[in-house]
Design brief:
This protein is mainly α and about 650 residues long. It is built from 32 helices and 18 strands. The strands form 9 sheets. Strands 1-3 form a two-stranded antiparallel ribbon. It has a two-stranded antiparallel sheet with strand order 2-4. Helix 11 packs across helix 12 and helix 17 crosses helix 18.
Length: about 650
């Protein structure tokens, strides 16, 4: 170590080390102090939730203020997030119910696994936390609307009136149809002693011995104190068997009178109907039991089957007809009596009214519009609704008897082959005649849906701009069908005839030039729209551009050539029409005059200077263009490249 110096060590505390010691000490002090934070509850934000505990029945987690039993904390996200979805959340506490739901007949809501459809997850005034609606009706009625309607009856079953649905039904699953807690008869006899009524009519009849109570009695509400269904024959329901039978055996062979005579004792109005102009055969023949059950039924009017099914037993052809894709709602629902009298009437087909009036009963809006419209489809008066529509079912929309175009063509025979034309209006092909026409009535000619021009612009909106230009074609603002066939044509753009002939119908003053020996090529081809906009233009005469611009759109080679050398003044000014007729003439090049006469309109061919420069050989009959190019040339005086001597 000899000869080496040992560095000294400074043992005095520096400023930086002192600061570090300070902060470490402060941190230790803060850690030692207990953390006191303001505790906030869910109710601080959800103040309305405090009302839950005021209800009669409160969900246990709510009563314990344990919101986090079901909800996740949502912090600043402001989203309601449950710990699990559907019934799985409920099963986390109600595990016993999981196995309960795995057998028997399930309540229809269970497959959705939404317990809260019936139960309130927080609180309720009903046991089992059942939900109520605004008027304190139990949640069952929200799905069972037919039962809710029965609740308005004056005669209600006591448990039903008290909204105690679970007195008869299991709420979740059961072993019997309707989720009944017992068989129907056992269930009824829990409250109603069988001994008190089994010896009384009609319960003492052998015919009723095998029936369940609900065959005649409605378990919810009925027509009287006995809760009889409306589908029970009144004498039978009251036990008055002797009204029809000689004894109470119920045999059809011991009736006190033949069926027809017996029924009309009470149903005398039916007797008048079966003796009308068009009687229904079973009614006329007194075969009431062909359609009606004498005691009780599951169907209205004591029918033996569902209303439509009863009719189809005899009217077999209509069964196949109703298989068509479009059916009349009354026919589809089996409500034949909506249109037909079932016992007899004065109209053919047993219609309740004459055909059109019968239709107007339901289609009242259409009936009102027909009465106030200035134009009504003639078919309505001539053939009626049935002339176009099937009364029961059809393959076509609106119950039409066939597709629109063939159907309409039966009367409008001029259009019978319209779909075979080369160019057919697309709406006609895709939607039929009613794309533009109202089939019943209209305020517009031809039963159009609206003013013709407006109707066309609904689809051809781009033409509205053409009609607003400085020079619109008059038919555009007056009547599109002046030029176009609205259905179809063998001419492009569905024109009523070829362009040239069509234009000449109005522009007859052009006929001489259009039909001349030397017609302009587009005119020869009948392509007037090559130069004229048929709907409207910002330029006069419907031209898309003015001067030589239009000509050069076809004559592109000439445009290039005419720009070289010396250019004839009219050509330079873009005034092609000074020399050429744009439609045609009897002069070659469709000139407006013979060449010499045309040139002499600007050039003084009779002047001494002219005669001298042409050696006295030129006159007003000369062919100036033989020596001069009428458009442009590289030589003086527009002379051609090769000249005949002595020039």
């Amino acid at each position: 170590m000899t000869g080496q110096s040992i560095p000294s060590v400074n043992t005095e505390p520096t400023l930086s080390s002192g600061v570090a010691v300070f902060w470490i000490g402060l941190l230790l002090i803060m850690i030692s102090i207990p953390c006191v934070a303001a505790t906030r509850t869910c109710y601080d934000c959800h103040s309305d939730a405090k009302n839950f505990v005021k209800q009669k029945v409160v969900h246990a987690p709510v009563e314990a203020k344990d919101c986090e039993a079901c909800h996740k904390r949502h912090g600043f996200s402001n989203k309601l997030i449950l710990k699990a979805s559907g019934a799985e959340l409920c099963y986390s506490c109600h595990e016993a119910q999981r196995s309960e739901f795995e057998s028997g007949v399930a309540h229809p809501l269970l497959p959705t696994q939404e317990c809260t459809a019936c139960h309130d997850p927080h609180a309720s005034s009903r046991r089992d936390l059942l939900r109520e609606n605004e008027v304190q009706i139990v949640a069952c009625f929200e799905c069972h609307a037919d039962i809710e309607q029965a609740y308005s009856s004056d005669q209600r079953h006591t448990p039903f009136a008290d909204q105690q649905c679970d007195a008869c039904h299991n709420m979740h699953r059961g072993e019997r149809p309707g989720l009944l807690v017992q068989s129907p008869d056992d269930l009824c006899q829990d409250c109603h002693d069988a001994r008190s009524y089994k010896d009384r009519a009609p319960h003492d009849s052998p015919a009723t011995a095998a029936m369940t109570c609900t065959v005649c009695h409605d378990p919810h509400a009925g027509t009287d104190r006995a809760l009889l269904k409306s589908k029970v024959h009144t004498p039978y329901g009251k036990g008055e068997c002797n009204s029809c039978h000689q004894s109470q055996t119920g045999s059809k062979h011991d009736l006190i009178a033949p069926v027809a005579e017996l029924c009309i004792v009470c149903h005398d109005d039916i007797d008048a109907q079966r003796n009308s102009r068009v009687p229904h055969p079973p009614a006329e023949e007194g075969e009431c039991l062909e359609c009606h059950s004498p005691h009780q039924s599951e169907w209205p009017k004591l029918l033996t089957e569902a209303p439509g099914e009863v009719c189809l037993n005899c009217h077999l052809p209509f069964e196949e007809e109703l298989d068509r894709p479009i059916s009349h709602p009354p026919a589809r629902n089996g409500d034949c009596a909506a249109c037909h009298t079932v016992h007899g009437g004065e109209n053919d087909g047993l219609l309740r009214d004459v055909e059109d009036n019968s239709c107007r009963v339901c289609h009242s809006n259409l009936a009102e519009s027909l009465d106030r419209s200035p134009l009504v489809h003639g078919a309505i008066d001539d053939v009626g609704c049935g002339g176009c529509h099937q009364p029961h079912a059809s393959e076509q929309r609106s119950l039409l008897s066939e597709a629109q175009v063939p159907l309409c063509s039966q009367c409008h025979q001029d259009y019978a082959g319209i779909l075979g034309r080369k160019f057919t209006h697309r709406p006609l092909v895709e939607s039929g005649c009613t794309a533009c026409h109202d089939p019943h009535r209209s305020d517009q000619p031809f039963l159009l849906e609206k003013d013709p021009s407006e109707l066309c612009l609904d689809c051809h909106s781009d033409l509205a701009d053409a009609a607003s230009r400085a020079f619109p074609h008059p038919p555009v603002t007056d009547e599109c069908t002046t030029c176009h066939d609205p259905h179809g044509s063998d001419t492009a753009a569905m024109l009523v005839e070829g362009q040239r002939d069509l234009c000449l119908d109005c522009h007859s003053e052009l006929e001489e030039s259009v039909l001349s020996a030397f017609a302009h090529t587009p005119v020869q081809r009948g392509e007037c729209s090559n130069c004229h906009d048929a709907h409207g233009s910002s330029s006069r005469l419907g031209m898309p551009s003015t001067g030589s611009e239009l000509c050069y759109s076809c004559h592109t080679a000439e445009e290039q050539r005419f720009s070289q050398g010396t250019t004839h003044a009219p050509v330079a000014a873009g005034k092609c029409a000074l020399c050429h007729d744009s439609h045609g003439s009897d002069e070659p090049g469709h000139l407006t005059k013979p060449v010499a006469k045309l040139c002499s309109t600007c050039h003084r061919t009779s002047s001494p200077e002219f005669e001298s420069s042409h050696l006295g050989l030129a006159d007003r009959q000369s062919r100036c263009a033989s020596c001069h190019d009428p458009h442009s040339s590289d030589r003086p005086n527009l002379l051609r490249q090769e000249l005949h001597p002595p020039f």
